[in-house]
Amino acid sequence: MTPDASVPDAPVPDAPAPGNELGEFLRARRAALSPRQAGLPDDGRPRRVPGLRREELAQLAHVSIDYVVRLEQGRTRRVSRPVLDALADALQLAPDERDYLLTLADVAPAAAQRRPGRPDVAPGLRQLLATMPDVPAMILNRRMDVLAWNAGAAALLTDFAALPPAARNLIRLTFLDKDVRARYADWPRAARECVAVLRMEAGRSPRDPALAALVTELTTHDEDFRIWWSTHQVRGPRQLTKTYLHPLAGPLTLDVHQFSVDTHPDQQLIAYTPPPDSSSQEALRFLLQWSATVTPG
């Protein structure tokens, strides 16, 4: 299909269809990409909305404007892989964003469609956590529920054992627990990463009621989450470095390692390590010595 330049930028109302994640993602990414970034000349026309116009996206992806309209409004839900690739190229999507687009359009590999994470943790994994006294570590599911932890993780972040199971979610704690929130030296960055991870998982598990309930709770109670969720930023697992401001040990800059669990594909092992021979290593050693008597989860 070819673009139809005679169709205006907004020929019909913009209201998206209910549950139209694909259309909302396309609209958000279109709004985030300027014509200059896309390599288009400035035509001098005033812009009603930021980013690319629909006609510009259609031109870059070699589809009609009407097709872009129908996609964004949820009136076309199944899209061919070549068209999705063309849209992803036009929008300059990063690899995680491209994967998310394919998932929303139901053309991602079946293995990416995950069931809700199981709450059980294998005894061997719990034993592994207990035998890592020098490394804060925990087991998370894809929603970032904290399923198990060792004393170091509790000392670093919060006493998970003192929380009801429903409250043991790393994203929920990051936004709604003032003490955990204060542990991050750069809370906005850490929080936005949490939102991007959760948005990616929401695309993979659209029928997970616990995930939907978590998103509803955070959207209701935190304005920052509500704003960042609406941007449709996504992110998959990657190497991270975070700085924590611990009230007892002071600042700790730690590498965050993420390991998949083959026996439980919906779970991952998270471990925190400091750079060798650093002040953070000394601070962590002090914190772990202090926490040696804390009972792990």
Unreliable stretches covering 5 or more consecutive residues? 1-18, 110-118
Number of helices: 13
Shape: elongated
Q: In CATH's first tier, which class of the largest domain applies?
A: Alpha Beta
* Annotated CATH architecture of the largest domain: 2-Layer Sandwich
In CATH, the topology of the largest domain is named Beta-Lactamase
Report the sheet-strand fraction.
5-15%
Roughly how much helix do the residues carry, as a percent range?
40-55%
The radius of gyration computed from the alpha-carbon positions, rounded to a whole number of angstroms, is: 22 Å
Q: What can you see in these coordinates?
A:
The protein folds into 2 domains: 21-112, 434 Repressor (Amino-terminal Domain), CATH 1.10.260; 123-290, Beta-Lactamase (2-Layer Sandwich), CATH 3.30.450. Helices cover 41% and strands 11% of the residues. It contains 13 helices and 5 strands. The model is unreliable at 1-18 and 110-118 (pLDDT under 50).
